[in-house]
């Protein structure tokens, strides 16, 4: 399996791929990449090789967008000497459709009004779904106790949204849109161990930059790219505790 630096794009100039939206770069990583990752920690360290431009950058934070990606995000943050946090998200679903998302960082849910109207979802139904997911969100918050650092409101700020992998892209899409709905004005960089090449092209329309260690056509199960098992809740909690030190 050949290793590669996948598609990367920037919308805002300085830190993008030559500052041109839709301009793609490819480079060999064959000297450091294995056919699959030994662990999420390894993937995080490899990502850091390509993200040195963000090392110790002011108003920059690494946000893990799902608990299983926390170990990857921790290594990335450690290598770049950046703060780490866990972006807790719960998607809102009905009839098998995703109609929005919530996070503990704001009281305002993200809602897909087109689907809500198209499915004739009542305000009562929506409120019930939101309340159910708020309970789950509080459970996760109590379980992992993330730092919940405030995000900078500066246009010069940067958030590195870190994931171990993207299969459907639902969580990453919700994370990006939640940030924007919260009024975040800085740069959003989506990074991951494995993100499908088609997904990268799609996310270039929503994020300022997209970068993954592996960019195959078919991702399959994200867990299949990692030799070790998914981290336990206790490992995730302890990793976040280490990040606070």
Number of domains: 2
Largest beta-sheet details: 5 strands, parallel
How much strand? 15-25%
Number of strands: 8
Rounded mean pLDDT score: 87
CATH topology of the largest domain: Rossmann fold
Which architecture name of the largest domain does CATH use? 3-Layer(aba) Sandwich
Shape call: globular
Beginning-to-end CA distance, first to last residue = 38 Å
Unreliably modeled segments: 1-35
Task: Give the topology.
Elements: H1 40-50, E1 60-64, H2 70-80, E2 84-86, E3 89-94, E4 97-103, E5 110-111, H3 113-118, H4 123-144, E6 158-166, H5 170-181, E7 187-195, H6 197-203, E8 209-214, H7 233-244
Parallel strand pairs: 1-2, 1-6, 6-7, 7-8
Antiparallel strand pairs: 3-4, 4-5
Helix pairs in contact: 1-2, 2-7
Description of the structure:
InterPro entries: PRTase-like. This protein has seven helices and eight strands; from the N terminus they run H-E-H-E-E-E-E-H-H-E-H-E-H-E-H. It has 245 residues and is an alpha/beta fold. It folds into two domains: 40-87 and 148-244, Rossmann fold; 89-144. It has a five-stranded parallel sheet with strand order 2-1-6-7-8, sandwiched between helices. A three-stranded antiparallel sheet has the order 3-4-5, sandwiched between helices. Helix 1 packs parallel to helix 2 and helix 2 runs parallel beside helix 7. The longest helix is centred in the middle third of the chain and has 22 residues, at 123-144. The relative contact order is 0.19. Residues 1-35 have low confidence and may be disordered.
Task: Write a brief structural summary.
With 245 residues, the protein is an alpha/beta fold. Helix content is 33%, strand content 19%.
């Amino acid at each position: 399996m050949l290793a590669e630096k996948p598609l990367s794009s920037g919308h805002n100039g300085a830190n993008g791929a030559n500052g041109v939206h839709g301009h793609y770069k490819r480079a060999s990583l064959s000297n450091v990449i294995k056919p699959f990752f030994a662990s999420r920690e390894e993937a995080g360290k490899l990502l850091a090789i390509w993200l040195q431009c963000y090392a110790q950058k002011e108003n920059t934070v690494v946000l893990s967008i799902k608990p299983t990606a926390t170990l990857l995000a921790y290594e990335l943050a450690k290598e770049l000497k950046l703060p780490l946090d866990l972006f807790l998200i719960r998607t809102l679903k009905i009839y098998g459709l995703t109609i929005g998302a919530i996070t503990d960082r704001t009281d305002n849910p993200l809602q897909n009004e087109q689907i809500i109207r198209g499915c004739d979802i009542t305000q009562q139904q929506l409120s019930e779904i939101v309340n159910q997911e708020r309970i789950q969100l509080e459970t996760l918050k109590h379980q992992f106790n993330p730092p919940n650092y405030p995000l900078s409101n500066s246009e010069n700020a940067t958030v590195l949204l870190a994931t171990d992998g993207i299969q459907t892209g639902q969580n990453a899409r919700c994370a990006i849109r939640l940030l924007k709905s919260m009024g975040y004005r800085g740069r959003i960089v989506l990074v991951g161990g494995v993100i499908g090449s088609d997904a990268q092209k799609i996310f270039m329309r929503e994020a300022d930059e997209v970068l993954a260690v592996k960019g195959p056509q078919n991702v399959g199960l994200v867990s299949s790219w990692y030799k070790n098992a998914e981290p336990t809740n206790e490992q995730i909690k302890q990793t976040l505790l280490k990040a606070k030190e």
